[in-house]
Amino acid sequence: MQQMLSRSLSAARPLSDQLLTSRRLLPSLTQIRCLTQADIDDPNMNGGYINPPPEKRQFRDPYADWWDKQERRNFGEPLHEDHDVLGMFSPHVYTHFTPRKGFFLMGCFVATVLGLCGVVRVYYPDRPSVSRGFEGGLDRELGGPGALLAPSEEKP
Predict the structure, then answer these.
(1) Model-level pTM?
(2) Residue 29 has pLDDT above 60, yes or no
(3) Which neighbouring-strand residues pair with 73?
(4) Within a 10 A sphere around the Cβ of 100, how many other Cβ atoms?
(5) pLDDT tens, 86-126?
(6) Strands (E), the chain
(7) Please, what sign has the CA dihedral across residues 19, 22, 24, 27?
(8) I want to staple 67 with a disulfide (CB 3.0 to 4.6 A). Which of 31, 46, 75, 80 is the partner?
C-alpha cells in the first residue's frame, strides 16, 4: 500500500511541475505592446493605402457609364478597405420606408385587426336556440331517485 502511494505521488510531480512552468509564461507588464509612431501615423493600419470615401455601391447611379456595370465601378478605381461591406453583393440598405412610417403602418394593421375583432364580437349571432329548462332539474327525466341502474358486466 505504501509503494502504491509513493508511485502515485511521483506520477503527480510532473503535473505540478507543468503548472509551475505555465505560471512563469504569463506576460509581464513590460511585454505589453505600446503605440509606435507608425500606429499613430496610420491609425487604420492599412499600410498607407489611400482610402476613398466610403460610398455604398447601391447608391451609385445605375445608368452611368461604368466600366464594371454590375459592381458600378470604373477601371483602376481604388477600392475602399471595407469593400466587402460597401459592394453590390453586400446586404442592401432598406430605404423604402422610414422607421416612423413603418411603425405607423404596423399600428394601422393592429388597429384594423382589433377593429375587425370588435365588429365580429358585436354582430356575431347568439346561440341559435333557447336552452331548455326542467322544473326540479333532470332527476325525473333521467329516471329519478328510484330508477333501476343499468346492469354492468362486472360482478359486485
Answers:
(1) 0.40
(2) no
(3) 68
(4) 8
(5) 888 888 888 888 999 999 999 999 999 999 999 999 998 87
(6) none
(7) negative
(8) 75
Res 153: pLDDT: 76
Which of residues 82 and 14 earns the better pLDDT score? 82
CA distance 145 to 137: 12
The identity of residue 127, as a single letter, is: R
Tell me the three cell numbers of residue 68: 464594371
- The closest alpha carbon to 81, from 113, 54, 62, belongs to 54
Q: Give the separation between CA 73 and CA 65, rounded to whole angstroms.
A: 9
Q: Grid coordinates in use for 66? A: 461604368
Show the DSSP H helices in 33-92 as ranges.
37-41, 83-86
Sequence letter at residue 101: K
Q: How many alpha carbons fall within 13 Å on the CB side of residue 96?
A: 4
Question: In the structure grid, which three cell numbers stand for residue 12, read together?
Answer: 503527480
Which residue has better confidence, 60 or 92? 60
Measured CA to CA, the distance from residue 117 to residue 125 in angstroms comes to 14
Task: Say yes or no to pLDDT of 134 above 80.
Answer: no
On whether the CB atoms of residues 81 and 44 are closer than 8 A, the answer is yes
What is the CA angle 48-54-55, rounded to 5?
145
